[in-house]
Amino acid sequence: MNDIRKRINELKEEIEKHNHYYYVLDNPIVSDTEWDKLFKELETLESEYPNLIDINSPTQRVGAKPLDGFKTDKHRIPMLSLSNAMNNEELRSFNERIKKLLETKNQIEYMAEPKLDGIGVELIYQDGVFLKGLTRGDGFEGEDITQNIRTIKSVPLRLIGKNFPGLLEVRGEVFIKKTDFKKLNENEIENLKNLKVIITLGKVALDNCLKIYKKKFMLQKKFEFKHGNKYLLPDNKVLIACYHPSPRNVNTKLVTTTMINQLLIKAKKIAKF
Q1: What is the mean pLDDT of the chain?
Q2: Is residue 150 within 8 Å of residue 66, measured between CB atoms?
Q3: What percentage of the chain reaches a pLDDT higher than 70?
Q4: CATH 3.40.470.10 occupies which residues in the chain?
Q5: How confident is the model at residue 26 (pLDDT cuts 50, 70, 90)?
Q6: CATH 3.30.470.30 segments of the chain
Q7: Where does 178-271 sit in CATH, by number?
Q8: DSSP state of 20
Q9: pLDDT band (50, 70, 90) for residue 63
Q10: What is the pLDDT, as a whole number, of residue 27?
Q11: What pLDDT is recorded for position 129?
Q12: Which helix (H) or strand (E) element contains residue 206?
């Protein structure tokens, strides 16, 4: 039994190492066939010795099903967000606050990079093993998305190396690439067999929806983006344009709660929901 346990641990470490090279470094060091052989061997051993299955095994990652509903949990240390600087005055004010915080009058150098707009998350590792994943939530309490995080192959379930702290909390952004999002949208419409009404939040959403349809149909009519505009698509689904409820649109009253509710009522009537 000890030899089996040892081999299983070796396989898990080997597979996680290759996953890191493939998904994180984008530099695979083994072929897909070799990876498949390692994975299959681990899968076979775990099926023969189910008492040796570890929740953080690579086989459990692949089989994990993302949850739709989430429990909540508190952040050990509040997970706060950054404020926006909308003009030069606000940027200078930010710089002065940093100087005051650092108790310096020296010039401060900043490094800027594009903001990846996704979902802020916190990953918690205990003794190098992935323990829990939480959304930012309100900064003090977030949703437990542990099982969903396990399906992200670039997130290690067990840290590589040695001498990492007993408790490690990593904070970052979970996002989806545009190419993957495009595929997701295309598959989503096809997979929703009972879909009758499509509401597009914003012109970008409308344009992307039409791009999907243009791949399959010849669209003759002109689609004008205006809140409440309704169009019949070639597959008899109804497309409704909706202004995006962004902070700017809400603050300028371009779109209101009443307008959104009225549009949803219209969609329900069309779908006979």
Answers
A1: 87
A2: no
A3: 96
A4: 178-271
A5: low
A6: 67-78+116-174
A7: 3.40.470.10
A8: I
A9: very low
A10: 81
A11: 92
A12: helix 203-214
The HSE-up count of residue 33 (CA atoms within 13 Å, CB side) is 0
Phi first, then psi: what are they for 195, rounded to 5°?
A: -65, 130
Q: Which residues are catalytic?
A: 115
Q: What's the Cα-to-Cα distance from 68 to each of 62, 65, 114, rounded to whole Å? A: 17, 9, 30
One-letter identity of residue 224: E
- Which CATH number is associated with domain 2-63? 1.10.287.610
For the domain bounded by 67-78+116-174, which CATH number is listed? 3.30.470.30
SS3 content of the chain, % helix, strand, coil (to 5): 40, 15, 40
CB 218 within 8 A of CB 228: no
Helix (H) / strand (E) containing 189 = helix 178-191
Write the burial class of residue 141 (CB in 10 Å: 0-12 exposed, 13-18 middle, 19+ buried).
middle
